[in-house]
Design brief:
Blueprint: E1 8-13, H1 18-26, E2 37-40, H2 54-63, E3 67-70, H3 82-91, E4 100-102, E5 108-112, E6 122-126, E7 134-140, E8 142-144, E9 148-150, H4 152-157, H5 163-170, H6 188-206, E10 210-216, E11 238-242, H7 245-258, H8 265-273, H9 278-285, E12 293-297
Parallel strand pairs: 1-12, 2-3, 2-7, 3-4, 7-10
Antiparallel strand pairs: 1-11, 5-6, 8-9, 10-11
Length: 310
């Protein structure tokens, strides 16, 4: 009988600042400097105030010499088509930080999903993703109106997928047509598992060339893709980083459940109602990573408790 795996290390700091973000990245011991680095973020829908601000992420982007990368959306809004998306990127100040590449601006490519995938055979990602050999998957952890929560796994799946790829994930493989996807939605568990499968395709493609960092601030029940998000009720928590995206999301979820039960009630309800934590189970079953984690404080002393409250 094989020995159980050690929990994945997840670093934590309460310091939500450019310095804290750099510390969380450097704690991972996987320097990406010298590579062609993609820093994958959400640029945020026009009208949304909760996306990761350029002044917060800028020093990290410059430290790795990276491009900020993003994909177009599958829904009508300020980021569905490249020209409007470019305007939103400029309005949100990302052009002042680094070059911004829309990965699917000039096409898309398919990459295989992991063995054991139930719904997707291949993931459809922006073609320019193949131009990079180092990856910072930089996530704003928060709620999501369809996925329950959005963190590293959502950024790897929906975030890296082209518009057609997003349609494929949302429909559980039924269609790549963004004009038909909202009429082809599968049961919720199929969508959640399809996100895990698409994330697995990207994780397998990147291999050991990636790091994962999540910022737990502006903890609305709604995603950065919502132009009118609900105001955050849960106070900011901190910055987490790991080499394991499943453990990173699991730690973020655990910290929500360990937070003030009253202030975190809406976010917990959003996650549970939409089966959000199911993505962790399916991702682990696919071999993308593991849910077991060990939180290590970068601030000195003990890390925050992840014991569930309420």
């Amino acid at each position: 009988m094989s020995a159980p795996k050690e929990p994945a290390v997840v670093h934590f700091t309460r310091d939500i600042s450019p310095e804290g973000l750099l510390r969380a990245y450097r704690a991972l011991g996987r320097p990406l400097e010298g590579r062609r680095v993609a820093v994958k973020i959400s640029t945020g829908e026009a009208g949304n105030p909760h996306y990761l601000r350029p002044e917060l992420i800028g020093p990290l982007v410059r430290a790795v010499g990276g491009d900020i990368v993003e994909c177009n959306t599958a829904y009508e809004g300020s980021r569905m088509e490249t020209p409007a998306h470019r305007r939103t990127i400029a309005e949100h100040g990302f052009d002042a930080v680094a070059r911004v590449v829309i990965l699917d601006e000039e096409g898309e490519v398919e990459i295989p999903c992991p063995p054991g995938s139930r719904h997707l055979r291949k993931d459809l990602v922006g073609a320019a993703f193949a131009d990079y050999d180092g990856f910072v998957i930089l996530n704003h952890f928060k709620g999501h109106m369809m996925g329950g929560f959005g963190g590293a796994l959502k950024n790897l799946s929906i975030g890296v997928a082209s518009g057609a790829g997003k349609a494929r994930i949302h429909s559980g493989g039924r269609t790549d047509d963004t004009s038909r996807v909202w009429d082809s939605l599968p049961p919720q568990e199929v969508f959640i598992e399809s996100m895990a499968e698409a994330a697995g395709a990207v994780v397998r493609y990147m291999g050991d060339r990636a790091v994962y960092v999540s910022v737990m601030n502006n903890l609305s029940i709604d995603c950065d893709c919502d132009p009118n998000p609900h105001p955050p009720e849960l106070p900011d928590i901190g910055i987490l980083s790991s080499l394991d995206p499943v453990a990173l999301d699991a730690a973020c979820v655990a910290l929500v459940y360990a937070a003030d039960p009253a202030k975190g009630a809406a976010l917990r309800k959003r996650m549970e109602t939409l089966l959000g934590p199911r993505i962790l189970d399916h991702a682990e079953a696919l071999g993308i990573g593991q849910k077991a984690f060990r939180l290590v404080s970068l601030d000195g002393g003990e890390p925050p408790s992840t014991e569930r409250r309420g």
